[in-house]
Amino acid sequence: MDEEKENEDPNDLGLPFFPNNPTSTRYYPLYICLKDPNPNRPARVLAKYIFYRKKGQEVVGCMGKGEPWYGDSVYLVAHPPTRCAVLMTTMQLDMFHPDNSWTYAIDEALQWLDQPRLTVEVSCLRDGLVKTKQVKKQLADLQGQEQLLSCTLFTVDMEVNRVQRRMEQVQALEQITNAHVAYTLVHTATKDRMPLTPHIGGLVECPLL
Fold this sequence. Notes:
This protein has 209 residues and is α+β, with helices and mostly antiparallel strands. The protein is 45% helix and 11% strand.
């Protein structure tokens, strides 16, 4: 027991952190840039302790207790590529959708593989498939609404055209224009003057009746 305590790293933060061992399947190449690097040493160092969060899509690491934390997105990178890429069909991509019947089997396989970066890519793919389905549904709803509005607009335009033709047959605009001109002339000629007329050098003068 005493030997285990002596072998423990005093800088170990404990859970949720774990040692970022390159030989581990949970290893991630998260590098921390040094503030004042030594010219004779690398300008960045590998994070000594890390943990994954946000469904494994982000990795956080530091150098030990009291040291600042650094985060980065998790990606599945194969460099240099060791195998030829195998293209996936649309049907195969749909297998990763959370509502697909293959979800349980895929999760079991990922748990057995224990590769965090591969698990993260599957998680990102699932999020993208869910969003794609939501956007497609919204587009379908908009297209349906557009068709309904187009039919409504056609009906309204037909009614407006019918009214326009009836008004043109009876020369409605000419009648309204002539009536407006005649009313304006008569109204201006018969308009009463001011009941009280200003008088030069004095008070307001009352008009004679």
